[in-house]
Design brief:
- By secondary structure, this protein is α/β, with parallel strands linked by helices.
- The strands form five sheets. Strands 4-5-8-9-10-11-16-17 form an eight-stranded parallel barrel, surrounded by six helices. A four-stranded antiparallel sheet has the order 6-7-15-12, with no helix packed on it.
- The protein is 29% helix and 22% strand.
- α6 (169-178) packs across α7 (217-230).
- It has ten helices and 18 strands.
Length: 295
Amino acid sequence: MIMLQKGSVTVGGVNLENHLILAAGVLGTTGASLARMLRLGAGGVVTKSIGPQPKSGHAGPCLIPLEGGLLNAMGLPNPSRDFVNELTPLKDRPVIVSIFGGMPEEFREVASWFEGIAAGYELNLSCPHAEGYGASIGSDPGVVRACTEEVAAFGLPTWVKLTPNVTDIGVIGRAAEEGGATAIVAVNTVRAMRISINLRRPVLGNRFGGLSGKMIFPIALRCVYDLYDACSIPIIGCGGISSAEDVIEMMMAGASAVQIGSAVCDDIGIFERIGEALYADDGSPAGEIVGCAHA
């Protein structure tokens, strides 16, 4: 097993305590939960996605466990601007604020609330189950570039989270890079659904949702691989990561860091567990591993 050198790392302009980041939407709903994940070994944390107006989200059921994954349709519930108060005590920590909007101006508005507080922004241009937001606008390269430009203008690190539900993810990645993104996060959940044969209806209240967890790891890996060839900014791999071996595989595909989400639901201590298997004082520099599968 290849191991990495211990130590902090800078990815996409954000100083992280290690390569392992809490993904958006998982225990990112309060400042206390974000601080807890940092204490439990996360090198950085991403908040729940925050939008221009408060949203209560979709009617339940919203989260269905599956063998090897999770199916969810939360509908981007969030407190909007009131979330600023949650993050003020964490303003010197590696906290990235996930933001969403229906148009570029809304991304700019939400980003402005967190100036001086956030270590950086992550643009949610990829949620597959919120009409008018996320993937519904994140599949248009022109819109992706425009939204990115609005947020990058603040001069803070700007990550863009992409959807795998497109024909060519490299085109979308290049649009984000042209808009001023400092990193790309790949990927968000995969469009999916299940039907209850007893009730004869979809199991989710929203009918459709997004699939995450181990079963989408090969999809996320392929997206990272394609983006490494298409773009020149760092890539943060996300999707089904649950072991040190997964981290190394993602890095070989081209990821400079990774985000972990669904696996936290099964193991709150997963960052420490992966870190113990991933890092060593005499480990390899990450630069020797990132993208090596392209040689």
